[in-house]
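# step 3/5: fold
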Amino acid sequence: MSFLTVEHIHHIYFTKDTATLALDDIDLTIEKGEFISFLGPSGCGKTTLLSIIAGLIQPTEGKVKLANQTISKPNPLVGYMLQQDYLFPWKTIEDNVTIGLKIIGQLTADKKERTLNLLKEMGLSSVEKQFPHQLSGGMRQRAALVRTLSTNPEMLLLDEPFSALDYQTKLKLEDLVFQTLKDYQKTALLVTHDIGEAIAMSDKIFVFSAKPGKVARTYIVPGQLRELTPFHARQHPQFTDLFQQIWKELDQLETKTEIN
C-alpha cells in the first residue's frame, strides 16, 4: 500500500461567469520516505494540487489518501512550508518554532527541548530569544522548517521554499533540508519552477502540462544522483543529461500552451 495516493483528482475554479478546469484526472502514488517534485509551467495547478493534498482545498472530484486515510481537512501528519516564512515578528524565535505544538496542545517540556535541539542542528544556536527581524532570510527559512518539523509530521509539503533566497543561500539550504528530511525519514513534496533544484533534491519528478493541469511525464532520478547531496548532484554528468531532457519537455509543453 502506497503511503500517499492521489486518485482521479479533478478541480474546477468557479466564478460568477466562468468555470476553469485547473486539474484534470491526476493520479499519483508516492512511497514513504520519497522526495517528490512537481515541475511545470505557471498555471499548471502545482500549488492547487499541493493545497488539495494538504486538505486546504476540497477537489471537485477524486480523493487523496494518506496512510490509507482519506484527507478531507488539514491533517497533523502533514506539514506545510511556504515561500515566505510567516514568522510572527512580535514573537521570539523560540515562541515561533514552538507555536505549532502550543496550538495542538502538545507543548511539553520534552517536545520543546527536542524542537530547540533541532534549531541547533539547523545551525541556529543561541537565537531562541532573538526576533525574526534579527535573522537573515536563510536563517528565517531554517526557523520556519524547524517550526514545521516540531509537530513531527510524516510528510512535508514545500511550496517554492527557496525561491526568495540568494543563490548561495539557496544551495546551502537545499543541502540542509535534503539531509534533515533523509535523517528524519520524512516524505516530501516540493513545488518548484527550478529544474536543477528538482533534479538535485528528488527521487522522482512529475512534470505537469498546463490548462488544464495534467501529469505529462514522470522522471525517475538516477540512483547515482540520489545518493549525493544536492550540491554534489549538480556536478555529476547525469545531472546535465537529465536537465536537458526535462528542459526540452518543458519547452514543448509551454509551446503547446501558447498555441492553445
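# step 4/5: annotate
The domain at 1-77+187-260 is CATH 3.40.50.300 (Rossmann fold).
# step 5/5: archive (pending)
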